[in-house]
Amino acid sequence: MFSLEKISIGVQTALNNSLPAFWALMAQFAIVGVLVISLFAVLGLVLVFMERKVSAYMQIRLGPNRVGYKGTAQTLADTLKLLVKEGLIPDGADKFLFRLAPYVVMISAMLLMAPIPFSRNFQIWDINIGVLYISAISSMAVIGILMAGWSSNNKYSLLGAMRSGAQIVSYELSAGLSVLSIVILSGSLQLSEIIQSQENGWWLFKGHIPAVIAFVIFIIAVTAETNRAPFDLAEAESELTAGFHTEYSGMRFALFFLAEYANIFIVCAIGATLFLGGWMPFHVGSWSAFNQIMDYIPGSIWFFGKTFLLIFVIMWFRWTFPRLRIDQLLNLEWKYLLPIGLINLLLITVMAILGWHF
Amino acid sequence: MLEEIGTSAEGDLIINVGPQHPSTHGVLHLVITLQGETIKKVEPHLGYIHRSIEKMCESLSYRQFIYVTSRMDYLSSHINNLGCALAVEKGLQVEVPRRAMVIRVLMSELTRLASHQLWWGAMAMDIGALTPFFHAFREREMINDIMEETCGARLTMNYMVPGGVMFDLHPDFQKKVKEFIAHFKGKIDEYDELLTGNVIFRERTVGVGKISREDAISYGCSGPVARAAGVSCDIRKHAPYDMYSELKFDEILHTDGDCYARYLVRMQEMRQSLNIIEQLIDNIPEGDFQAKTKAVLKLPKGEYYSMVETARGEFGVYIISEGAMTPYRIKFRSPGFSNLSALDHMAKGSKIGDLVAIMGTLDLVIPDIDR
């Protein structure tokens, strides 16, 4: 059976055999860095194309279908266009922060790639506080957004950034609580162990209704955290033109754009890992024959399949729902999601202590 | 002017929305005074698309000036033209053939449908739902095709002439309209499913941009905006022109006066328009489509006023004639202008997001306001 695990272990042994320990580590860093950057580029291309096609079919259009095979190279052409465009900096902008902001957003997205397990033993950094790391790093993107909005010297940008700040800080709580419920169920903060604990069934199914509630809250919260519709208040185009990135053009804009899609991928990957078993195939308790058949499908395919399913759901939201208003958005979080999340967490704790889950 | 680019003396944020902005549907310029996200004042600045149409009309003959009015409220150009034709007919004392009347009503209602469809999509887009726009355009396209076949144009039809309509109906007209009705009846339910029942949509519109009956009257609101506040003002009912007195249809009235009521009024008006078209489509009488009129029209000295119900409200045409080939003075009463004047009243104290929703439900067409 094909597995990414063989590649990663093979490369590691080859490096360790041929180089001294320190240089082997350095070589691994370099390889990982190149891989992450190319993964970002590929993800950007794939997700932008996917979004355009998904939206097109929901809106009875065809979507891009001219450049390349069935329009697949459209994003590439757009990227080239953005690369050669002039990156304007408005007069009166804080030039240093204006230049820095897209990189802060982008780097925080890249850092999040580290603990995500793409397949068995195919993980950049299997840190034992993986979930905590993710919660910590994912809150950093808001600094970049605030920087962008503040430094643009544009009132629309400022309003967008302030909205984004309020929104991300609030929804971080709900996302954190629902992630915490899986930590309680699995008893570990390490993502590889959380996946291992789902060997006989995914937490979405094993955790009864509380897990489903946690999952729903998680999806809502991460949609808000990634500034996606119906929570795209930070860039509400009918109100604030383009929100925090109104003044950005060329590649700096593209970095925000890319970071948005990278963030969607990451939050969906985390959702798939925590609730849907990550790369773990679909297993049903004691049906060993069924489980063995499922094992023939490589883990990486399971992982990407689940992730893209969640991405599709989030895109589906965007092209169906109207946008919330800022006060309604905060009401939803503080009056509904947070209390429900807290009670749900309590239920899950009771369930975990009494061992009611499968 | 300094105020407009910075903050006011009280330290409030002043924002220019427009003249180029995604939510203004044209070159409308709003100067908003904000306290945080809360709106303190909205000040519309007009004039970006002023073409002095009323002045132009004074140098155009009574046949020519009708076509300029297509460029005002371009979404209900048929009905604008009809209003002008009616005013001229009043002066000429022309008897319009029945067939022409039926065609005029059919075209007016199709125009109303097309306009409301576009409004539905555009308003949904303002509120943040992008998909309805495309669904609305799919149905609007069918109407445009019908228009194109008969009138030769899709937006500025120029089909109404004093004494009737310019051409006879296209032979396929009845078949195509019936196809459209059958198609649209299913789709309008889909519209309701997609947007009307949506929780977020209701959150965004119920209780937002309220205007009371008294205020709606004193601001001179008309059309769906006034009817949503409980003002019975449908010209088709109160001063019926052409065929409308013989048709069965309801005037839609709501009493809440908020965005949701305005939305519902338009949605139900679409069903009423369908109803009117269904009543007429099988009963188009044979006969002339145009009354015999002189080649050069001269209105007797006097003042003539006619009003019609466009998709946006009451459209009035006031002609002063000195007996010459061209009118002495023309004044149009456009619904959008009065409706826009109520914007500040509606938006005061609400959030920026609400302003966009209110503008969406006012259904503004800027060339109609600026003329």
Throw out a few tags for this protein.
heterodimer; A: 358 residues; mainly alpha; B: 371 residues; Cytochrome-c3 Hydrogenase, chain B; 2 domains; 3-stranded antiparallel β-sheet; 47% helix
Q: What topology does this entry show?
A:
The complex is a heterodimer of chains A (358) and B (371).
Chain A: H1 4-18, H2 21-58, H3 74-84, H4 95-111, H5 130-138, H6 141-151, H7 155-186, H8 191-196, H9 203-206, H10 208-225, H11 237-240, H12 250-275, H13 288-295, H14 299-318, H15 326-354
Helix pairs in contact in A: 1-2, 2-12, 3-12, 4-6, 4-12, 6-7, 7-10, 7-15, 10-12, 10-15, 12-14
Chain B: H1 2-5, E1 13-17, E2 29-35, E3 38-45, H2 53-57, H3 65-68, H4 77-92, H5 98-127, H6 131-151, E4 160-161, E5 164-165, H7 173-196, H8 199-205, H9 213-218, H10 224-227, H11 235-238, H12 259-281, E6 302-309, E7 314-321, E8 329-333, H13 335-341, H14 343-347, H15 352-362, H16 366-370
Helix pairs in contact in B: 4-5, 5-6, 5-12, 5-15, 6-7, 7-12, 12-15
What does this structure look like?
The complex is a heterodimer of chains A (358) and B (371). Chain A is mostly helical. Chain A has one domain (88-354). Helices cover 69% and strands 0% of the residues of chain A. Chain A has helices at 4-18, 21-58, 74-84, 95-111, 130-138, 141-151, 155-186, 191-196, 203-206, 208-225, 237-240, 250-275, 288-295, 299-318, 326-354. Chain A is globular and about 65 Å long. The model of chain A has no long low-confidence stretch (mean pLDDT 84). Chain B has a three-stranded antiparallel β-sheet with strand order 1-2-3. Chain B contains 16 helices and eight strands. The mean pLDDT of chain B is 85. The two termini of chain B are 25 Å apart. Chain B folds into two domains: 1-48, no CATH class; 49-370, Cytochrome-c3 Hydrogenase, chain B, CATH 1.10.645. In chain B, a hairpin with a 2-residue loop joins strand 2 (29-35) and strand 3 (38-45). With 371 residues, chain B is of the alpha+beta class. The radius of gyration of chain B is 21 Å and the shape is globular. Chains A and B meet through helix 7, helix 11 and helix 15 of A and helix 5, helix 6, helix 8 and helix 15 of B.
